[in-house]
Amino acid sequence: MSNDRYHTVGKSIFRRGAKERLTGKPIFCADMELENVLYLKAVRSRHPHAGILGIDTTAALSIPDVVQVFTAKDIPGKNLMGIINKDQPLLAEDKVRSLADPVALVAARTPQAAELAVAAVSVDYDPLPAVFDPEEALAPGAPKIHAKGNVLVQKKVRRGDVAAAFEKAHTIVEKTYRTSAIEHTYLEPDAGVGFPDEDGTLVIYASTQNPHYDHKEVVSLLGVEDHAVRIIQAATGGGFGSKLDMNVQGFIGLALYHLKQPVRYVYTREEAYLATAKRHPFVIHMKTGADETGRITAMQMKAVCNTGAYGSYGIAVASRAAVHATGPYAIDNVDLECTAVYTNHPFCGAMRGFGTPQMALAHESQMDIHARALDMDPLEIRVLNGVKKGTVTATGQELVHSIGFQDCLAAVTPEYRKAGTDWLSEPTPPHIRRGVGIAGMWYGIGNTGVQNPSTARVAMDRNGQVTLFTGCADIGQGSTTILSQIAGEALGLDAMDIHVVVADTKYTTNAGATSASRQTYISGNAVKQAADKLADVLLTEAVNYLKVKKADLRLENGSVRDARHPEKQVGFVRLASRILDKGGELSWQGYFDPETVPLDPETGDGIPYTTYAFACHAACVEVDVLTGETSVRRVIAAHDVGKAIHPENVIGQICGGVAMGVGFALMEAFVPGETISMNDYHIPTAADMPCVIPIIVEAAEPSGPFGAKGVGEPALIPTAPAIVNAVSNALGKRIYALPASLERVLDASIASGHFNNCYQES
Amino acid sequence: MTQTSVTVKFTLNGKETVKDISPEQSALQVIRDELGMKGTKEGCGIGECGACTIEVNNQAVNACLMFGVQLDGCRVMTVEGLAEEGRLHPIQEKFLAGHAVQCGFCTPGLLMSTHALLGENAEPDDSQIVQAISGNICRCTGYQQIFSSVRAAGGQHVQGRGQEDC
Fold first, then answer.
1. Are the C-beta atoms of B81 and B13 separated by less than 8 Å?
2. Whether A366 contacts A175, CB under 8 Å
3. ipTM of the shown complex
4. Which side of chain A, N or C, has fewer Cβ within a 10 Å radius?
């Protein structure tokens, strides 16, 4: 849809907060100056699984400048955290379940003293047998991580008759895929500060994706009234899902509660690696059947994912994995099951995509294998099977609106074709083989089959100044900018003319988590609703003032004017005064909760999401058959975002997602006990990046704000399978486990004979 | 906790600076903790991420890997030295206009790497740009909008990485 009809939507305005970041203002928690601040540091477990027989803090407390050492018994409220299921103590009580588990918290006047005290806390452990592999953790007799057993959850989606469909299938492909644990590696290590306010409120600034959840959790840990705690989101240096959990917030709350003095906790990178959530590693057994035309008629999928010591977002990951297992394809007969399993691995939680990137590796590899078996083109098989209007999904939901998958496929087609002919046929040195791969994805916007509302307030004062109050945490993706644009559009104002109050539990209401690619769609709608209500009050008053019917009035640059006679106008200031003088209301609340239907526990039947984002990536790679090095040269990335409120932000998400996808595909693997620091964990640098060609597809979502959906997670999802498919295209040998590291690619090169051929020639 | 201290004198963002520091302190600790300038960020503390990049005698360096005492006698520039009297430096303006800032934690380091690059080579080619910024990790942007902003700051007026580039 053309942007001409919009005042600010669709325009890539300068980002809110960019100037502070460009000039190095002290906006992150580690930067904030506080008088008499105490430094916090957790004592963490030395064992992956052990009973705690006793904790002796005497030696630690005798160290100069050490103020206090807290243990579980100092927690006044409920010592249990978790956004979906509560199974994670702030400080371990009777046992530790991973190397990351905190057992005590030190507060000291200097960081050095805090560190010495951590080393001096003596914990008497009774080591227990540990288990790290989720399939082993399911075996009878496996060490029990939690009293209720090692299964966190099992999510199922069933539809049609899979057995009969396999019976009739022309080709059947059955493979096992594996993915690694991934560390988010946001640039800002977790951090928070806290201080008691004049009235005794415990004020906590945190690097977080969900201040209102933090608030609820800190209140519960401390057993205090809601108003006793105030959480403010500080500038947050990336999150990607990991800052959805309580990382430092609970520790800061506990110390504040007892010491009533400013405290700071900034994780070192090493602590951020050890103690925060990871992406769930998956083992996926997938079997698909196709008829002779290439139509996929059946899918059976059994996945086990390792949630480590605690649930965190594991239930959401398992649920989303099952629901998204088919990929953006219409498959009538499915039997899908994902089990999340506790182990003694450091806990896994939310990471950009919640299990969908792992599933995409499987369904996109299967798609290519079917195409090859039937001598079909990889693009054609996707066009044939791709969802379209009227498709009924695995959960029985009929797709009606905003289904841009075919448009995404069409958008990459010219570049994909050109790469397949021109680029592949260019001469290369003998040790370099080129390949082109393609992959699709779909992604449900918002939480899966559960309520996940957002609220917002838009208020005008007597001077006509508009302020947007939103609880939505901007973690770098730019939500504050686009929510301002949405409010501005509704009120005919420039986005930057709107004041914003963001993510402060004292002044803003709950917007839910910055996760699940939900904020543009859900909070955007809440903001739009609030702004529309305010706009309507202004218009109503203007009718009275201008004596023009409402339908002819427009909000424009701080005035309401008659569209037919633009000289007839009245400014917001005058309208605001008139409304307030009459006792009218200029502060309006918006609320939006997407319509979903909870999924049946046995069949998965229901409506998990109101709307879905779609995408297709094509990747061009060069593989060095002698070293196994894979260089991604280009990625063409088409994304159906409904409507790009801020196109450059969308492009930023796409390019950032591709980078994370390159890491997921080729280099990233978090290994507990081995991955200690950034030395041991490599993510893409500028030198590793392909040229990305972002293509924005806008299949407007009728229920979205100005048609918008979301893009944050979708951006990452198709990249890794597109790269894996390209490597397979280059070598004629497929890789089934991520990352496709040097070793795995070299193995594939040797197995395919390319290594030998090249070696003998040279 | 050391008993001794060392006096260092250096020019920081054009200002003569004298400070007593502990010999084991890193340049990053001196700048952030002793001088209270928080623009320079710590992302890893071991020279992997580049968030603490500063310019020392026109060279981009990781402040976390340098001892504070090594600053003695040097010309040092941090992100706070870029904007003058509230006016953004041209590199900052290009980053703003090029939408190169997302979470912003890597931004100061990238600005300093860019500043050092352009100080040495006013019109870098693409490979020189990649080399100059490849020590600065960014997890948000995928580098493309950063890359084109550096290009623009270096006088290349190409919008984004065009398809002709790859």
1. yes
2. yes
3. 0.97
4. C
pLDDT tens per residue across span A531-566: 999 999 999 999 999 999 999 999 999 999 999 999
Looking at this protein, which amino acid is placed at residue A622?
Answer: E
Cβ-count burial B84-99 (b if 16+ within 10 Å, e if not)? eeeebbebbbbbbebb
Residues 390-419 of A with CB under 8 A from B: 415
CA distance A211 to A112: 30
Positive or negative, the CA dihedral A493, A495, A496, A500 is positive
Q: How far apart, in Å, are the Cα atoms of A688 and each of A278, A663, A729, A743?
A: 23, 9, 20, 18
Mark which residues 20-79 of B lie under 8 Å from A by CB. Answer: 36-46, 48-49, 51, 78-79
> Is A686 at the interface with chain B, CB within 8 A?
yes
Contact, A193 vs A264, CB < 8 A?
yes
Distance from CA of A209 to the nearest CA of B (A): 12
Report the C-alpha gap between A462 and A586 in whole angstroms.
9
* Preferred mutation among B139, B158, B165 to probe A, highest tally of A CBs within 10 A: B139
CA dist list (Å): B128 to A688, B94, B147 = 14, 18, 11
Whose CA is closest to A419, among A688, A717, A636, A723? A636
Please report how the helices B144-153 and B126-133 are oriented relative to each other, as an axis angle in degrees rounded to 10.
Answer: 120
Assess contact for A564 and A438: CB atoms under 8 A.
Answer: no
Q: Crossing angle for the helix pair B107-120 and B126-133, nearest 10 degrees?
A: 140
Task: Report pLDDT digits (tens) over B17-75.
Answer: 999 999 999 999 999 999 999 999 999 999 999 999 999 999 999 999 999 999 999 99
Instruction: List CB contacts (< 8 A) between A648 and chain B.
Output: 99, 145
Q: How confident is the model at residue A762 (pLDDT cuts 50, 70, 90)?
A: low
Rounded to the nearest angstrom, the minimum Cα separation between B45 and chain A is 8
Give one word for A483, left, alpha or beta, with left for phi > 0 and alpha for psi -120 to 50. alpha
